[in-house]
């Protein structure tokens, strides 16, 4: 194996793969080191397996709620082993396509655990590799709360590998992962209670959008307990107990900790002390993704950006361009569309605060007249009449529409300009366009 490269990237997830392919595309000699499955979190234990489960949940949810429309009969059951097999085959296809693309690009793939042993030097299995640029793309892992019995709780990695469904589950944490797991499993027939320490769920979204999302989760049958930090998990007579306080205990089959993620920093080895972290504990970077150790860059979830796959991929490409092509600045996070896969999705672009929203509406879509759970839709525009800077949407298909809203915002439209295009009738985005 060669030992000298133009750049070595540690981590074969969305960020590392993107950097390696684009840097090699500029004629550079690149090594990518991955200790686990190629594709990282998104492909193996994140977006992709989650979205495949959500697809099933969405179909069940749309069908089973339509009792008022006369859609009757037994609820379809999910054959988990069959679903898991179909999903596993797709994940393997994706991993193989990444392997092929790295090969075509001429990237050296090394399947080992890497450690930074000196500036410009990475060690794998006692062998030293050198490059003037080292890129950390090591991603993150789920963290559990510091409480007695936390080890009895599953994290999202485990939930996405369940081959049978529990009858009842308690989820700790009301962020993206907690809410998505709640909506998906409730639709698949699991009795779900979600407990979070915040006043509402989805605090990364603007208030009204998140509250409509929360009401829809409740309409779906999910019990939501806010402003509560559970005290312990313990074994019960028949399953597990989540102790909320002295007076309330939830008896369930499974407890899931969806209480946040932390970056993977083991690759820094003894050099960790020389790499500055932010208050959130992720790696501090400048606009060239360079850390406080010259020549060491960081992209993706381990760095101080938004922990979303499109950001990780875009930043990997941007860094490759900055180092080996024409300089471009990192994508502005205000132009990143995002969606929580609840039912229906809560989607947003522009990262608005509650005060930013100047026009909004909560409405009942036509489907609500037919559904037993009467989910509500919502749209909100942020910024001002003169310059619209954010769009929020809660509606079926919101995760598809919000990407186009992000494109629209790039052109800095005023409110009157948005009214000059017409949406599809009947739809919720039509209402937002005015
Ligand atoms: C349940 C879940 C659902 C999600 N859903 C979405 C979604 O719908 N949309 C979205 O945009 N984002 C979603 N995300 C977030 C998204 O998955 C991450 O932002 C993205 O995967 C980060 O990519 P990354 O390359 O930074 O890190 P990762 O994909 O985590 O890759 C890091 C890689 O580095 C490797 N590594 C670490 N240390 C070493 C070492 N020392 N040596 C060698 N290799 C090492 C790891 O094995 C890993 O493969 C979700 C996340 C989770 C957990
Ligand atoms: N659809 C998507 O794009 C998607 C999906 C999943 C994850 N992600 C990414 O992954 C990141 C991590 O997601 P996450 O949901 O794990 O983390 P998070 O930090 O977004 O949410 C964790 C939640 O748990 C709560 N919490 C923490 N400790 C608690 C305790 N002891 N008791 C009760 N509540 C507690 C926090 O207040 C917070 O609301 C997200 O920020 C997002 O960027 C994105």
UniProtKB/TrEMBL annotation:
GO terms for molecular function: nucleotide binding; oxidoreductase activity, acting on a sulfur group of donors, NAD(P) as acceptor. PROSITE patterns: PYRIDINE_REDOX_1. Residues 5-316 form the FAD/NAD(P)-binding domain. The keyword Nucleotide-binding applies. InterPro entries: FAD/NAD-bd_sf, FAD/NAD-binding_dom, Pyr_nuc-diS_OxRdtase, Pyr_OxRdtase_I_AS. Pfam families: Pyr_redox_2. Binds 1 FAD per subunit. Keywords: Disulfide bond, FAD, Flavoprotein, NAD, NADP, Nucleotide-binding, Oxidoreductase, Redox-active center. FAD binds at residues 51, 301. Its cofactor is FAD. The active site is at 425 (proton acceptor). Disulfide bonds join 42-47. NAD(+) binds at residues 173-180, 260. SUPFAM superfamilies: FAD/NAD(P)-binding domain. Its EC number is 1.8.1.16. Coiled coil: none annotated. Belongs to the class-I pyridine nucleotide-disulfide oxidoreductase family. This is Glutathione amide reductase. It comes from Limimaricola soesokkakensis. The lineage of its organism: Bacteria, Pseudomonadati, Pseudomonadota, Alphaproteobacteria, Rhodobacterales. The gene is garB_2.
């Amino acid at each position: 194996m060669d030992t000298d490269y133009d750049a070595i990237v540690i981590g074969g997830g969305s960020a590392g793969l993107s950097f390696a392919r684009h840097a090699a595309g500029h004629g550079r000699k690149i090594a990518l080191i991955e200790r686990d499955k190629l594709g990282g979190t998104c492909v193996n234990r994140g977006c992709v397996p989650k979205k495949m489960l959500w697809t099933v949940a969405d179909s069940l949810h749309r069908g089973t709620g339509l009792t008022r429309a006369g859609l009757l009969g037994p609820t379809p059951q999910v054959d988990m082993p069959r679903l898991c097999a179909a999903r596993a085959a797709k994940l393997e296809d994706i991993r193989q396509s990444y392997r092929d693309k790295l090969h075509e690009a001429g990237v050296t793939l090394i399947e080992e655990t890497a450690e930074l042993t000196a500036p410009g030097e990475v060690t794998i299995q006692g062998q030293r590799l050198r490059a003037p640029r080292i890129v950390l793309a090591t991603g993150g892992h789920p963290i559990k709360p510091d409480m007695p019995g936390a080890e009895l709780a599953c994290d999202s990695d485990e939930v996405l590998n369940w081959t049978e469904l529990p009858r009842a589950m308690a989820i700790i944490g009301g962020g993206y992962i907690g809410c998505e797991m709640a909506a998906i499993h409730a639709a698949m027939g699991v009795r779900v209670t979600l407990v979070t320490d915040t006043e509402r769920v989805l605090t990364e979204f603007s208030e009204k959008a998140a509250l409509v999302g929360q009401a829809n989760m409740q309409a779906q049958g999910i019990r939501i307990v806010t402003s509560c930090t559970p005290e312990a998990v313990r074994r019960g007579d028949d399953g597990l107990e989540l102790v909320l306080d002295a007076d309330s205990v939830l008896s369930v089959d499974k407890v899931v900790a969806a209480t946040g993620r932390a970056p993977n920093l083991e690759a820094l080895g003894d050099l960790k002390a020389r790499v500055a972290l932010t208050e959130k504990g992720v790696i501090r970077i400048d606009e060239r993704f360079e850390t406080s150790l010259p020549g060491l860059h960081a992209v993706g979830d381990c760095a101080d950006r938004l922990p979303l796959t499109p950001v990780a991929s875009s930043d990997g490409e941007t860094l490759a361009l900055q180092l080996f092509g024409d300089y471009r600045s990192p994508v502005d996070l205000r132009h990143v569309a995002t969606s929580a896969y609840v039912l229906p999705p809560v989607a947003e672009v522009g990262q608005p605060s509650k005060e930013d929203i100047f026009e909004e509406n909560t409405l009942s879509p036509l489907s609500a007249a037919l559904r037993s759970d009467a989910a509500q839709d919502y749209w909100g525009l942020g910024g001002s009449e003169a310059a619209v800077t954010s769009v929020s949407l809660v509606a079926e298909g919101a995760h598809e529409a919000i990407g186009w809203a992000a494109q629209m915002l790039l052109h800095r439209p005023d409110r009157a300009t948005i009214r000059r295009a017409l949406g599809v009738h009947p739809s919720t985005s039509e209402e937002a366009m005015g």
